[in-house]
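User: Okay, second chain of the day. Same drill as before: sequence in, structure tokens out.
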Amino acid sequence: MRKTDGLFKLIGLCLLAGVLVAGIMFPVVGAAGVVSNQASETVDKTSSDLADIPPPLVTTITDSGGKPIATLYDQYRIPVAPNQINEATKWALLSAEDKAFYEHHGVNWGRTLRAAVSNTAGGDTQGASTITQQYVKNYLINVVYRGDKSGQDKAQEQTLSRKLKEARIAINLETKLSKDQILAGYLNVVEFSRQIYGIGAAAHAYFNTTPEKLTVPQAALLAGLVNNPITFDPWNHADKAAKRRNLVLDRMVANQKLAKEDAERFKQEPLGVVPDTPSKPASNCTGAGPENGFFCQYVEDYLIKAGMTKDQLYTGGYTIKTTLDEKANHEAKVSAETQVDKTQKNVANTLSLIRPGKDRHEVVALAANRDYGIDADKGQTTYALPSGVYNTGGAGSSYKIFTSAAVLNQHVAGIYSTIPVGNGYTSHVFTGGGNTCAPTGPPLNSRWYCVGNAGDYGDSTTLQNALATSPNTAFVALEDRLGSTGPGIDMAIKLGMRNTMASDTGGRPVDPKDPKSVPQSKAYGPTDRSPGFGAFTLGFSPLSGLELGNVAATILSGGKWCPPTPLSSITDRDGKPVAVKEAACEQVVPEGLANTLAVGMSKDDQGSGTSAQAARDAGWGGRPVIGKTGTTQNNGSATFVGGTPQLAGAAMVFRPEGGSGGLCYNGVGNVTTCGHGSMYGGKTPAQTWFGAMSKIMEGQPAAPLPPEDPEYTR
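Assistant: Same drill. Structure tokens below.
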């Protein structure tokens, strides 16, 4: 436990013990007894609150090597111990606020009586609080009632009962803590404006220094601020701040803690604060910068989904060590931005990378062509494009992976089985949907589901070759043989598309109050009256790129699904480990099936495979890889999902703001929105994936894919 945290806890216990102080009454005429009783009714609860509620601290997020990448906080606070407060700071504060601090026992009775009489009689409001009493009040305002305007107002109302309660607790504090501990406690809690709390944070934010190194004029400026941080803000009100600083210097002279000639010299010095605004880190994931911000956002989203509240995350003082590989993330960012300009209107290009494993699936990179930030004119966004369900256009033929997995699972076909292709196919199982045609046989319904191919694929091929060349007709025919979309949807969920399939058809969380808001798994799945949407295998629905990448990780982990975790470890403010409730890994398909499916997906980068040209352009060099491209209707979005045994992931290009129409590929770095597009999964997505992975995997051994299982080959 750090000394400063121990001090906070001791102070809380002392405040709690304040209820034991009995019979302390202001020596004011008869009414004081009544006031004492009123105060006693609230001391118990207040003291208990103070003991149980620690002050907000800064949460730090680091990369996999422990290097800080972002800070999350509600109050910027850097706790300090008593021995970190120098003489200049001590005497500047005490001269300004409580020059008798070392003589009284928590309450300055003379000042208190004068203020009480004046305030009760309706005269001018007068302050009489000692540093000890101010500490109690500031703890209530800045800690206990943080965010509670009513509670904050009560903690500083000018009533005798409130003063009595404050005095009783202050007196008890003085019996439990040393003067220097009380002073440190106060200086750790008090506000210095602009989310800056405590002398540690103030020294850094105002002067880029530490409390031990504060000079006399610097200390005088900060000591003057605590009286009214907004009025004496040196950036907004430099003149008022200078006058207040000089007044503190005069009081130090009067208190015999500073020579007059030194004070006059210090008054001539400029304020000396850092230019423009305080030097403090960003209070949220924008501080992670344009590259790492998306990863930071996923950490926040992941922890909140795991049960941590945002308030806990932003006030708990945690150290969160993540799985972020900054080199991999940088290469992913460079590749995504190379393929699509960051300022291109309504075009997002993302890449998510995950490390396969049977015990953990660690996320190592989350990148986009867009920068993470709040300036939209510069192409920035704070939407979680790589990890959230933001691609509403769909994955296209990458979803044929799920039909293939279902086919293998039910032994409808093996990866080397010959399956029919043809240039057109009419489903007698699925009806309606996006593509319809008149019945060609005995009509069970008024319209059949019909599908064609973008090219001539011949009459038949193997399932392995179909995964590489992607004829639509072959997979709708396989879906027919499964009888419904149920097996494919089940495989999508099992292999990794869990948040995706739980979102509604617009990619939003399901609204339980809206009967039309249902999860994709239900909307596209079979019912008593329908076998489901036959186009499911063609990937027309919203999805998360991170989850699509985790599908490849599951396949390369022998069918072991694990949640895509960004967490390596978490410790609390005391350095103790914090457990996070993460979903358990599951063996979702037989290992032999997963291994054989990986072999089935291993030809996409070769010969006539849809990503072969992208692999060659990136100098992939024959390293074993699984892959599957996807392109949606009108070429409005496209994907590539792939992986090696060491690293898996998915790239997507899509219209983040939605809208009809397609994406036009006009060469590397030149992708635009258009009417009917020319984008394909083998272009920008595959180029992004191979472009990054060729750099990330450089120097690593070429690991072989797992062996196929004969049970799933024919």
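Residues 31-52 form the longest helix (22 residues).

User: Thanks, on to the next one.
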